[in-house]
């Protein structure tokens, strides 16, 4: 009995219901960060930030539908990596997983770096590296101890975030109403500006789409979700829609309170608006909320990269002894979480602009692959226990794929070049582990 039990495979523990999965997805997106990036987006879209967020939501919603369908068909950890491998083949699955690592692997680092930048601005005498290390140690500890503890912690953090967003929206509306001309507030102004070319709004939408990264990340928690075939599709779509509604409303009211893109500092435009509408007290509350948002987002982002590495390690695409390890007590991929924390230390030598320039390459490539996977499933006729119709299996994912390719092509040249280099390195590694494609990467039974 002892010998047989020692060889039993490790499994992640199913403890997350729909509310917890929703909170993880929303925490990953960090709704409050809509204010942290508002100035950059407003400038890029020529003061049509609300419309840019709305257009991005339309593109993301179609992709979210595709994620939901695949999460029901393949209820295992791994996200786009797993879906592509199961739907197409192991080689393509590896390449999508490799590309996705750009998003998952480096996004926690960016989150911690932004949080440290905010804290350094508030406390300039404390070196940034102290804040970065503190973020890494705390989030790593929470994620290693267990997903349940992190989920409960996220509940508190999300309540605080949503409360600050609600206050910000209310103050913007009140300020806009008080400053309105005798004819009242120009309600349609944030959505309709005849002099702004569509190309400017589209450029803004490409940036706005970055804020939605996270609606798909919860699919990596499938093996820890109760009744994943029902809860995971619902969670993915709801996260995209709820997050999108928050972004659109926040950008809309910001434009009403502060029309135009004339800010003292574009990178901190929200602080300027916060002080204008609420004074010094609200600015302090707002800063505290931003830090909490970064902390919550860092927990979810690090949890996701840990589980993606676990799925690839379990398949022996990465060394199984390291990446396929599950902590015997906490039942979490502890080594992977620690690796994500160590990678985050790279933030000590980078700035926000450099670190965020290429992570979106992998995200949009993964989104495109997921939509193509649904089309492949539909054309194969193997729809599982629920038939997929022509709209859900062909029309919607095709719209999603085209939208995601457009977003990918809209990235700046630096991001495209760095992403392409990373992808070529992935092809080289795949050649090595498959002996020049003569054998498939190892697969795992669902």
UniProtKB/TrEMBL annotation:
The chain crosses the membrane at residues 21-38, 50-71, 92-114, 126-146, 153-176, 196-215, 235-254, 281-312, 333-352, 358-379, 388-409, 415-433. It comes from the Bacteria. Its main location: membrane. Keywords: Membrane, Transmembrane, Transmembrane helix. Pfam families: AA_permease. Gene3D superfamilies: Amino acid/polyamine transporter I (1.20.1740.10). It is found in: Membrane. Residues 33-372 form the Amino acid permease/ SLC12A domain. It is a multi-pass membrane protein. This is APC family permease. It comes from Paraburkholderia sabiae. The lineage of its organism: Bacteria, Pseudomonadati, Pseudomonadota, Betaproteobacteria, Burkholderiales.
């Amino acid at each position: 009995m002892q010998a047989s039990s020692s060889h039993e495979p490790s499994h992640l523990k199913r403890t997350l219901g729909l509310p917890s999965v929703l909170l993880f997805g929303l925490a990953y997106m960090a709704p409050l960060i809509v204010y942290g990036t508002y100035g950059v987006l407003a400038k890029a879209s020529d003061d049509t930030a609300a419309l840019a967020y709305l257009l991005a939501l339309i593109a993301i919603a179609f992709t979210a539908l595709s994620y939901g369908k695949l999460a029901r068909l393949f209820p295992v950890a791994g996200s786009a990596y797993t879906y592509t491998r199961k739907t197409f083949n192991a080689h393509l699955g590896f390449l999508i997983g490799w590309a996705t690592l750009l998003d998952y692997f480096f996004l926690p680092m960016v989150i911690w770096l932004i949080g440290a930048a905010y804290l350094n601005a508030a406390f300039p005498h404390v070196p940034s590296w102290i804040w970065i290390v503190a973020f890494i140690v705390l989030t790593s500890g929470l994620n290693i101890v267990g997903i349940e503890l992190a989920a409960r912690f996220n509940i508190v953090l999300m309540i605080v975030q949503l409360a600050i967003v609600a206050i910000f929206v209310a103050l913007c509306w009140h300020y806009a109403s008080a400053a309105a001309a005798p004819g009242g507030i120009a309600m349609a102004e944030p959505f309709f500006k005849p002099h702004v070319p569509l190309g400017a709004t589209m450029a803004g939408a490409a940036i706005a789409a970055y804020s939605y990264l996270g609606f798909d990340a919860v699919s990596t928690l499938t093996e820890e979700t109760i009744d994943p075939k029902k809860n995971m599709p619902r969670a993915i779509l709801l996260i995209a829609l709820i997050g999108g509604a928050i972004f659109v409303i926040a950008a809309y009211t910001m434009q009403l309170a502060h029309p135009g893109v004339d800010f003292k500092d574009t990178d901190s435009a929200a602080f300027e608006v916060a002080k204008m509408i609420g004074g010094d007290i609200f600015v302090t509350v707002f800063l505290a909320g931003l830090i909490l948002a970064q902390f919550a987002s860092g927990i979810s982002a690090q949890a996701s990269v840990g589980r993606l590495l676990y799925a690839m390690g379990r398949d022996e695409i990465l060394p199984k002894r390291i990446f396929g390890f599950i902590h015997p007590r906490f039942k979490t991929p502890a080594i992977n979480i620690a690796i994500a924390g160590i990678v985050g230390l790279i933030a000590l030598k980078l700035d926000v602009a450099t670190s965020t320039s290429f992570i979106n390459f992998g995200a949009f490539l993964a989104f495109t692959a997921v939509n193509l996977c649904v089309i492949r499933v539909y054309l194969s006729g193997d729809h599982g226990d629920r038939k997929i119709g022509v709209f859900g299996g062909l029309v919607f994912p095709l719209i999603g794929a085209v939208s995601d390719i457009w977003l990918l092509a809209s990235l700046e040249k630096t991001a495209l070049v760095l992403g392409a280099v990373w992808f070529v390195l992935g092809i080289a590694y795949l050649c090595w582990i498959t002996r020049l494609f003569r054998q498939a990467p190892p697969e795992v039974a669902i």
